[in-house]
């Protein structure tokens, strides 16, 4: 067993949004200090952090000073520029490691990695040229969706093909960027497994949660998910296989489609995940603490579920309903401290907790 | 219903120890920023606070700047100098208010207040002169304990009387400070009720916890306490009576002795309390958030208990046992980020959680 980082050590966190904020609180609970690196001003994570660096990911001096002031580096989002990672990695350990980032930053690499592991994904084809686009549409059919392979986030850089004749305009929308054509999947539910792997290789997974999206953004996650016991076990084992294959350290979100033919992997996120927020009020050790435990070398904590939970995101003006939620029995509130409630902006979430069914 | 302070408002917290630290985290969860005022360097609360003022309670300039930068003031300990309170109160609301502080800062005022409410305490007598000491020992008998009326904390400023003949040396130990002689109580258990009262007068109490002390410091709190249903109800009603009588706003810890003759009030603390730490893993809304809700004008949250919990304090070298606790199923860890593990110093606590019995 590796000795964990000593109390008082500093955890560097790339990204100062709500995930960084909840990671910083978890770090404090384990006796660590959090140092946030974030280009934008007044990031939500700064309210609960020991230190804040406001600088871009191109600022080599700021990156170097940040790395020198911390003991380990982790992140709340996966699209960190490669040049920044190269510099940081030369100075301090980055956990989860580069392999997980490389796979999750590129949709073709991600699908290839998953298929090579023997896991099923939506049908897909790599598209870099007009000829490849024609071949891809022939292989996948329509409807389908064309996405840039890199930096995709919440529906940006995507074009839908309702029918095969949309191929040309969709390809043009990529503006020459390498892309991937993905077929649609007939699924009965989307579930996600929040899994963790420690520095010592120990793997632990939370009970799968069932996700409902609205306008492309996660709306609710419900535990328990409506899965048969065998599916539940499949989901957890599948996630463990991914973490082990990547020699992963930290928490990962694995999104799965439930289909009549079995479980398909939709996407993986090498970080704490919105669909794991229910763990804050459903488990003795939540996903944020589990992540900090992993990256600092602690043994993983007990992630077993003591309660049923429905997590609901409050997006934009949803926040005006808070006074009602605040009075609800069994409802826990988690605000992100964002000043302005813009449409589509995640402002808070609530966890509605009930005794385990 | 009063409108709560808006998201982004600043909560001023007097005291930067572990209670201030956990209050700061709760403030963030409700979208507020915490500003800590603490004379000592590197206070535990600063790691998770938006701002820190390092200054003494005699520094009028620092107190004034602090008050001007916050929207409401609360505190993690009750022995704040009166001059500081006078200055702060002239600039911003202090919650809980002065009446609660006046009562809890003076043992004679506290006992008088409780007895006037019709509540039973240990037998006591005020002692300011040698003559009063003689009369007090005649009234109370021995064994008994003589304490200074003000600034008592964890056994400081106290002298035990094993027999009546110890009276003279005990009185001398007070060095002329006003004191109180308290008789010993034959109790079967010590329980505490963590109760909250909102700005709107709503009262809510957590399930009473049962306390075990070691060497004068709280060792464990267990919920449920071994109380009969009628005693449980008495304990909660009694606490509510105290909060209402003080027009109290915030969380209060009420320590009670269980005796064959009924419940006796041992002492009250106008703040979040060590014996309420179990709420962090036993309830949807913990004592820290309940306190922040009260002082910012939110409705009180649901403090009903979803689990059985045993809270254990880790004092001094106890901290070396953390690696074992970290592996225990159902165990949640809360470290305070203190650099040095001195004997008698509270370093962390753990909550051992089990399904509700």
From TrEMBL, chains A, B:
Q: Which residues form the ATP-grasp domain?
A: 111-296
> Which residues hold ATP?
107, 147, 152-158, 182-185, 190, 213, 266-267
Q: EC class of this enzyme?
A: ligase
Instruction: Respond yes or no to whether keyword Ribosomal protein is given for this record.
Output: no
| Complex formation | Homodimer.
Q: What is its EC number?
A: 6.3.4.18
**Keyword Ribosomal protein included in the entry's annotation:** no
The chemistry this enzyme catalyses reads: 5-amino-1-(5-phospho-beta-D-ribosyl)imidazole + hydrogencarbonate + ATP = 5-carboxyamino-1-(5-phospho-D-ribosyl)imidazole + ADP + phosphate + 2 H(+)
**An example Gene Ontology biological process:** 'de novo' IMP biosynthetic process
Q: Which HAMAP family match?
A: PurK
Q: Which UniProt keywords apply?
A: ATP-binding, Ligase, Nucleotide-binding, Purine biosynthesis
GO molecular function term, any single one = 5-(carboxyamino)imidazole ribonucleotide synthase activity
Could you tell me which PANTHER family the record lists for this protein? PHOSPHORIBOSYLAMINOIMIDAZOLE CARBOXYLASE, PURINE BIOSYNTHESIS PROTEIN 6/7, PUR6/7
Pathway note: Purine metabolism; IMP biosynthesis via de novo pathway; 5-amino-1-(5-phospho-D-ribosyl)imidazole-4-carboxylate from 5-amino-1-(5-phospho-D-ribosyl)imidazole (N5-CAIR route): step 1/2
Choose one Gene Ontology CC annotation of this protein and give it.
Answer: cytosol
InterPro entries xref list: ATP-grasp, ATP-grasp_carboxylate-amine, ATP_grasp_subdomain_1, PreATP-grasp_dom_sf, PurK, PurK_C, PurT/PurK_preATP-grasp, Rudment_hybrid_motif
Protein name per Swiss-Prot or TrEMBL = N5-carboxyaminoimidazole ribonucleotide synthase
Function as written in the Swiss-Prot or TrEMBL entry: Catalyzes the ATP-dependent conversion of 5-aminoimidazole ribonucleotide (AIR) and HCO(3)(-) to N5-carboxyaminoimidazole ribonucleotide (N5-CAIR).
Family, according to the entry, reads as follows: Belongs to the PurK/PurT family.
Q: What is the lineage of its organism?
A: Bacteria, Pseudomonadati, Pseudomonadota, Alphaproteobacteria, Rhodobacterales
């Amino acid at each position: 067993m590796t000795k964990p980082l000593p109390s008082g050590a500093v955890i560097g966190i790339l990204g100062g949004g709500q995930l960084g904020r909840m990671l910083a609180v978890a770090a404090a609970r384990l006796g660590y200090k959090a140092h946030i690196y974030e280009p934008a001003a007044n990031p939500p994570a700064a309210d609960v952090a020991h230190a804040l660096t406001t600088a871009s990911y191109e600022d080599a001096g700021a990156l170097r000073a940040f790395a020198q002031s911390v003991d380990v580096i982790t992140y709340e989002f996966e699209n960190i520029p490669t040049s920044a990672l190269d510099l940081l990695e030369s100075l301090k350990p980055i956990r989860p490691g580069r392999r997980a980032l490389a796979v999750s930053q590129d949709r073709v690499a991600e699908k290839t990695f998953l298929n090579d592991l023997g896991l099923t994904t939506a049908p897909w084809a790599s598209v870099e040229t007009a000829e490849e686009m024609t071949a891809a549409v022939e292989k996948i059919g329509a409807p389908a969706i064309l996405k840039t392979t890199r930096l995709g986030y919440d529906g940006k850089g995507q074009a839908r093909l309702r029918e095969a004749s949309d191929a040309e305009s969709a390809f043009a929308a990529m503006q020459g960027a390498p892309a991937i054509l993905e077929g649609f999947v007939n699924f009965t539910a989307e579930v996600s497994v929040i899994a963790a792997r420690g520095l010592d290789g120990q793997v632990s997974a939370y009970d799968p949660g069932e996700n409902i999206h609205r306008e492309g953004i996660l709306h609710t996650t419900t535990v328990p998910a409506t899965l048969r016991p065998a599916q539940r076990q499949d989901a957890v084992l599948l996630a463990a296989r991914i973490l082990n294959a990547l020699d992963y350290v930290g928490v990962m979100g694995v999104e799965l489609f439930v289909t009549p033919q079995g479980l398909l992997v939709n996407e993986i996120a090498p970080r704490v995940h919105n669909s794991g927020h229910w763990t804050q009020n459903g488990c003795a050790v939540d996903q944020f603490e589990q992540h900090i435990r992993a990256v600092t070398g602690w043994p993983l904590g007990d992630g077993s579920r003591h309660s049923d939970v429905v997590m609901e995101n409050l997006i934009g003006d949803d926040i005006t309903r808070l006074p009602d939620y605040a009075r609800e029995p069994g409802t826990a509130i988690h605000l992100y401290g964002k000043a302005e409630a813009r449409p589509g902006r995640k402002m808070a979430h609530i966890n509605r907790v009930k005794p385990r069914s």
